[in-house]
Amino acid sequence: MADLGTDHVSDVPVVVVGGGPAGLMLTHLLARAGVESIAVDTRTRHEIETTHRAGILEAGAARDLVETGVSDRILRDGHEHEGTELRFDGRAHRIHFKELVGESVWLYPQTDVFIDLADARARDGGTVHFGISDTEVLDIETDHPRVRFTAEDGARHEIRARYVVGADGSRSMCRDLVPEGRRHRFAKEYPFAWFGILAEAPMSAPELVYAQSEHGFALISQRTETVQRMYFQCDPDEDVDSWPDERIWETLQARVAGEDGFRLKEGPVFEKTVLRFRSFVQQPMRWGSMCLAGDAAHTVPPTGARGLNLALHDVKVLADVLTRALGTGDDAVLEEYQPRALQRVWRAQNFSYWMTQLLHTAPGTGDFDHRRQVGELDNVVGTRAGRTYLAEQYTGWPTRES
Ligand code: PHB
């Protein structure tokens, strides 16, 4: 029976606020464990599909997507990278992940992960409401939380559940529901941002190139044989309209230039965005009947390519914990979630911060700072311990069992 002002009432064990990769992977894993759930998102599917995000998946995350039946497209359209390049002082240094730690990573854009997950949910008959509005998350301090919203077609919905998961991204509304006096927010701002472009051009390198130079940082990534993704460090208030293609290419070329004569293959730029970033963690990751996952609980600078991987790790742990809590009726199982997720979160916070300071030029720093940074980079690439440290962090860590 519908409440006054409610057209549809549903009852499911888990309702997930957020239909990005974290939210959809969680509903997919829950469905495989026989637990029904519904995901909702204020964005339309089209909006999520056309927002460009990072592109590196740990081998473990790629395996999970393939082995749990999301998609094997990653094996066809993705590119396995056994290493990455660090460029500084005008020279290239390869970190051979596979040789150092026996792991690789996959270049497969987050938008494709999302498309695969959304298709898999549709294929498996899962319910996802995209494009919702007026979202309210209610009664999380009780055993019967609810989510109310207006669907894209204007109908009013109420979803009653046993647990709510806030996987609603870096501008999460769910995390604000943890009372102010009971939550702690750890945050760090950076005095720079990334200018991200997509260009129609051939690949300039077979793997990612992370470049440090006295002009600042640049990252050379790829999308397809004909579309390339690149970034360079810029001011957080940079205006993309003051960057014609010529100026972009000049800036990127200067940051990767070196005695080996390396040059980027240029082409028309068809997308330009300034990406601001910060390091952020909110604790606790559980409050009453609500758990936070992915960017809603923590964000990292994109330098270490950890964001999506961390979110996928959270939901893997969460799917396990929620399934057991529902199966046993024992709420206490949920207490395992934060310690199992958080160790990796802080490791990734450290790694992302470390990679960022290693490669960027902070405004106001002088030639001492630049030479010291080159010394640190030299320690990383010039010692097996340094290379192994980077390789281990970049390719991910094993999941802590409990
Ligand atoms: C990307 O391809 O968009 C990308 C790759 C690695 C990063 C960040 C972004 O660290």
Structure, explained:
The strands form five sheets. This protein has a seven-stranded mixed beta sheet with strand order 7-6-16-17-18-15-19, sandwiched between helices. It has a six-stranded mixed beta sheet with strand order 9-3-2-13-22-21, with helices on one face. Strands 1-12-11-10 form a four-stranded mixed beta sheet, with no helix packed on it. It is of the alpha/beta class and 402 residues long. The protein has helices at 21-32, 45-49, 59-67, 73-77, 97-101, 110-123, 245-256, 307-328, 337-359, 367-382, 384-395; strands at residues 8-11, 14-17, 37-40, 56-58, 79-81, 83-88, 91-96, 105-107, 127-129, 133-138, 146-150, 156-160, 163-166, 184-189, 193-200, 209-211, 218-222, 227-234, 269-275, 278-283, 286-287, 290-292, 298-299. The chain has eleven helices and 23 strands. It folds into two domains: 8-76 and 106-186 and 279-355, FAD/NAD(P)-binding domain (3-Layer(bba) Sandwich), CATH 3.50.50.60; 190-277 and 362-395, 2-Layer Sandwich (D-Amino Acid Oxidase, Chain A, domain 2). 34% of the residues lie in helices and 26% in strands. The structure holds P-hydroxybenzoic acid (PHB).
| Sheet with the most strands: spatial strand order | 7-6-16-17-18-15-19
CATH topology (fold) name of the largest domain: FAD/NAD(P)-binding domain
Helix content: 25-40%
Q: Kindly report the average pLDDT value.
A: 95
Structural class: alpha/beta
Strand content: 25-35%
Q: Give the number of helices.
A: 11
CATH architecture descriptor of the largest domain: 3-Layer(bba) Sandwich
**Largest sheet descriptor:** 7 strands, mixed
| CATH superfamily heading of the largest domain | FAD/NAD(P)-binding domain
